[in-house]
Each structure stands twice: as structure tokens, then as C-alpha cells.
């Protein structure tokens, strides 16, 4: 389950960046709304999956409140899910 969460964290970060850096400019500058719609749907699903998995793993692994809050806040900030994946979810640090 931890590996699935790691993959979800990376994909959520990629979809967040794609939404803001690629599809929103296409929508507002080039008048192409469809890419934004589909990437937005994908990002929404990944965001909800990330939040659910973060809470489930937080309870299951009995992680500290600090770590749980960091995992949840990371979903709101660009690039933060990459940081969380590297710092808190890698094989070496996920045990604590």
C-alpha cells in the first residue's frame, strides 16, 4: 500500500503541475478548454486518492501528527508531493 501511495503522490504532483503549467495556459491563452477539463478530472481523482491514502496510512502506520499534517498539506502545494515522497515515503524513512 505504501508503494501505491508513493506512486499516487508522484502522479498527483505531475497532474497538479500539468494543470497549472500546461492546460490552464492552453485554456486561457489559446482558447482550448478540453485539455484542462480532462487533466482537471484526472487531477481531481488523484487528489482525492492521495488524501484518502494519506489518512489511511497515517492511521495504519501510526505516524505522528506532524507527519500526517505534512502529508495532507503537501497535496495543496506545487512540488510538495515530490518532496514528501522523497523525504517521508522512501523505503528508508517510511518506517518512522
Task: Tell me the β content.
Answer: under 5%
Largest sheet: none
Order of secondary-structure elements: HHHH
Instruction: Indicate the overall shape.
Output: elongated
Helix/strand/pairing category: mainly alpha
Number of domains: 1
Q: What's the helical proportion of residues?
A: over 70%
Count of strand segments = 0
**How many DSSP H or I helices?**
4
What key phrases describe this protein's structure?
cell membrane; 4 helices; membrane; mainly alpha; transmembrane helix; single chain; DUF3817 domain-containing protein; elongated; 96 residues; DUF3817_TM
Show the helix and strand layout.
Elements: H1 2-29, H2 34-60, H3 65-74, H4 80-88
Protein name: DUF3817 domain-containing protein
InterPro entries: DUF3817_TM (IPR023845)
Subcellular location: Cell membrane
Amino acid at each position: 500500500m505504501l508503494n501505491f501511495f508513493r506512486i499516487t503522490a508522484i502522479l498527483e504532483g505531475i497532474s497538479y503541475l500539468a494543470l497549472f503549467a500546461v492546460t490552464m495556459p492552453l485554456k486561457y491563452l489559446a482558447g482550448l478548454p478540453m485539455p484542462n477539463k480532462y487533466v482537471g478530472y484526472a487531477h481531481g481523482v488523484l487528489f482525492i486518492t492521495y488524501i484518502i491514502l494519506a489518512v489511511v496510512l497515517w492511521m495504519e502506520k501510526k505516524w505522528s501528527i506532524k507527519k500526517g499534517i505534512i502529508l495532507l498539506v503537501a497535496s495543496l502545494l506545487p512540488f510538495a508531493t515530490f518532496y514528501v515522497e522523497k523525504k517521508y515515503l522512501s523505503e528508508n524513512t517510511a518506517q518512522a
